[in-house]
Design brief:
Two copies of one chain form a homodimer.
Chain A (H helix, E strand, L loop, with lengths): L5 H9 L3 H10 L2 H10 L2 H10 L2 H9 L3 H9 L3 H9 L3 H10 L3 H12 L5 H4 L5 E4 L4 H11 L9 E4 L5 E5 L1 H6 L6 H4 L7 E2 L4 H10 L4 E5 L5 E6 H20 L11 H28 L8 H5 L1 H24 L7 H30 L4 H31 L10 H23 L2
Parallel strand pairs in A: 1-2, 4-5
Antiparallel strand pairs in A: 2-3, 5-6
Amino acid sequence: IISNNDKEITALFSEVHFADIAEVLDEVNFEEAIYIIKLLDSEKTSEILTELDEDTREKILKNLSAKEIADEVREMDTDDAADIIGELSKERQHRVISALEDDDHAADIKELLSYNDNSAGALMAKELVKVYETWTVAGCMRRIRGQAKDVTRVHSIYVVDKEDKLVGRMSLKDLIIAKSDHKIADICKAKVDAVNVHQNDEEVAKIMAKYDLEAIPVVDDNNVLVGRITIDDILDVIREEADKDYQMAAGFSQDVEADDTIWELTKARLPWLILALFGGFISVSVLGSFDNAINTFPELFFFTPLIAAMAGNVGVQSSAIIVQGLANDSLKGSLFKRLLKEILQGLLNGFVLAALLMSAGMLFLGFPLDLGITVAASLISVIIIASIIGTFIPIILAKKGIDPALATGPFITTSNDILGILIYFSIAKLVLGF
Amino acid sequence: IISNNDKEITALFSEVHFADIAEVLDEVNFEEAIYIIKLLDSEKTSEILTELDEDTREKILKNLSAKEIADEVREMDTDDAADIIGELSKERQHRVISALEDDDHAADIKELLSYNDNSAGALMAKELVKVYETWTVAGCMRRIRGQAKDVTRVHSIYVVDKEDKLVGRMSLKDLIIAKSDHKIADICKAKVDAVNVHQNDEEVAKIMAKYDLEAIPVVDDNNVLVGRITIDDILDVIREEADKDYQMAAGFSQDVEADDTIWELTKARLPWLILALFGGFISVSVLGSFDNAINTFPELFFFTPLIAAMAGNVGVQSSAIIVQGLANDSLKGSLFKRLLKEILQGLLNGFVLAALLMSAGMLFLGFPLDLGITVAASLISVIIIASIIGTFIPIILAKKGIDPALATGPFITTSNDILGILIYFSIAKLVLGF
């Protein structure tokens, strides 16, 4: 790159898949990336741009004029074009769209930009193959030859009536197998899954995954066909959703990547840490309120981190099961049954762990029996209560429309820490009487 | 169902999508499920079986004879058939396969069963559309009409030479657009991504996601075309992988679902809890070894859960970033840079949190300055060290071929708890001199 031999670079990259070039551009320094983008022809660079990491793309787009961006966007499918234009400022969005020569393309992109983020409308592409039910197979083949050139992948051919309302679908295969004088209305499948343009993208993902669909048509409130969503877009939705749950469980307040700046990372990490610190401060006060026990039973204080940690671990386990169950729609049975099940599990786990703890404490640390019983009874109570809280918090969050994955984060751990310590010392006070 | 009116049930279900029937069967009791399966025709039930929850399916298959299972399997694509037969005992596998009338289908299934779990071979289907490079477009169309009937979805047409080695691919669209007297060799794309039959399924998922492929051909070591993998199978791989990471982070030792039995759930939860208990026990000993401080500085002991919790939270955050980075192949830069970055973040987070803690402690709890300094300095040290450990454990695990997601589970939290307490009291001893 340093030698600036343009021809060589062009030749080198012409053989390489755009996804691989995108990876290279994510790695090289910024001037080099701009240089390469400007060097290659727009057919290739438009594909590269869609594959780039969001941060890299943002930097590159800043350095291209509205005209240059319009040239890139012209080559893209409407959904990719709308995604990229959507990342620009409102003012630049207008400039880029008016720089587009093809008015239809510009109108399609504008329409896609008008839908809410996370709706089927924002996810769909306008490119699709559409035929009227009154056409014959032969006529259809002729027209599809025209339409299909604009569509990267023909998954399904959508059949509409004269008002553009969706009435059926068929595959290219069906068309090839059919006799050429048949009417489309006779050979198409009348039952077709479709989603509404305002439907949430996670719901769309669930429907497509459940019915193993590779593309789904999108209709407006009048059942007019307005676009289609393909499985590769859904793949991104599923992955983002999984990443989000994972990051929430790990305690981030926003989407982060390993290569974000220290400042971005700190912004995502610090809020939860401050919450955890606040929780920790409450646990300090709780412990402080039992300080009259410190001279008679110092061992009690040695066990607080253990009890708190067990409460946290058990709570996260219980929450994670519910969060996954909610995500897969696989939660069955009544709340009461679930409660009973958690209590039984808590008892089972609690007894095993308490037995281990009590025997270890009495054997290795020479605990008196009453202290052993206190610690063991506390452990069982704390485990049962942490299980119940861990189970119900995500269910309650989901009912209130909050992402239940929030429960697996430091929130549950911290609350369970505090509650665990409180229960532990209350039981100790009861048994040991200080 | 109770009325046992067979005709009505058949009529009712004939209009319903098999994925929905599968959901119903997962809910109803077991005799009813068997009854419905035996009632419906095998074309429908074979689809239902592939959609059922694994546990429900296992129970149903137990109650069908080898002949009945073979009838179901006959209607399935080879990959689904192999998945279902693979769940049976070795001895029943043989009986079902020999009950299959179609020898080719049986041989294909046997071949698929012979590949390692989690390999491309175990994931692929034998059904695909294959043409020879020497054919003409017209001849190709004729033969595809025959082949395509067996293939649910034609994504790509794979072009092979006379030794069945993969030489190219094209889409149905390419074929329809082409002139009928052209040779296939002239119109097909010679560059085709393929995976080896022994390649790991997660690698296949990464390749397909990166290049936005909807199907990928699978070749053996001699580049002979042996099958193809479609995106819907990859969807399952990605989801399973995400679920696995999530469950590891939450502290399960095996795959669980909310509706598993109490026994299965306990088996998955207890191992990590015992490990955490063992870790907790070490923290008890560490605290016990500093017991001479308990009379002079009892407040120190009130802060142990706070310090331990902060160490755990910070460690999990650091690990989660690395685990995600490793999963997306987005970790760039040297180890040294990453180390520096973590230390800087730790310092930044640590100072903010320590300042909050120190002022709160001195204001509300009336701490003397030296105790405030001790707690604050410990918090900063603990956060930095937990960040470093959280960063490097997953990297080391990945290098040793162990799933790095293990690091986000109770393992890191527990180690950081212990280490945090040790650092805290060591600093306290240094500053306060007890």
